[in-house]
Design a protein that fits this description.
alpha/beta, 7 helices
Length: 181
């Protein structure tokens, strides 16, 4: 799928609270080409792509078929950033780059507390970060050369990470002979 696209599909993933949306929003601003940020969690809620809602965990059981049917034409076109706490749902052929954001678990705990997450959800997400659940998911779902792990603990990391992704976009386009025309 990626060979004919003029713009890449970038997956930004990580445990909730690692800065996915903040990174995606800044990348849209800094990118040398137009990119559309898709907050997948928001899309699931807004378009009703879920089967149920769990009050205890404050989370949705996603209807993956409906979600993927909606995203397929967008991924085929390219030029999107898929922002979600999981990545293995997305077909391998979609992704040109998979960025896994990481954060010190103490900072992560504080971020999730500020969001008002229930204690057991904070504990579960913190444990997932410590156990590298999202990193392992990315590594087992995509080619190693497209998976990159980046620290996300403050503004300096954010700016550095986005600059690095911008450089990657420029290299991706150059490698494919894509020019501004």
């Amino acid at each position: 799928m990626s060979s004919s696209r003029k713009a890449p599909v970038i997956v930004i993933t990580g445990t909730p609270g690692t800065g996915k949306t903040t990174h995606a929003e800044l990348l849209v601003q800094e990118s040398p080409i137009p990119l559309k940020h898709i907050n997948v969690g928001d899309m699931v809620k807004e378009k009703g792509f879920y089967e149920s809602y769990d009050e205890d965990w404050q989370s949705y059981t996603v209807d993956e078929d409906k979600l993927l049917d909606e995203l397929e034409p967008l991924a085929s076109e390219g030029g999107i950033i898929l922002d979600w706490h999981t990545c293995d749902i997305f077909p391998e052929r979609w992704a040109d780059l998979v960025v896994v954001l990481r954060c010190n678990h103490t900072k992560l705990w504080d971020r999730l507390e500020k969001r008002g997450y229930p204690l057991k959800k904070i504990q579960e997400n913190n444990e997932a970060e410590i156990m590298e659940v999202v990193v392992e998911e990315a590594r087992s779902s995509y080619a190693p050369e497209i998976v990159v792990e980046l620290q996300s603990e403050g503004t300096e990391d954010l700016e550095s990470n986005v600059a690095r992704i911008v450089q990657w976009i420029e290299a991706w386009r150059k490698d494919r002979g894509v020019t501004d025309s």
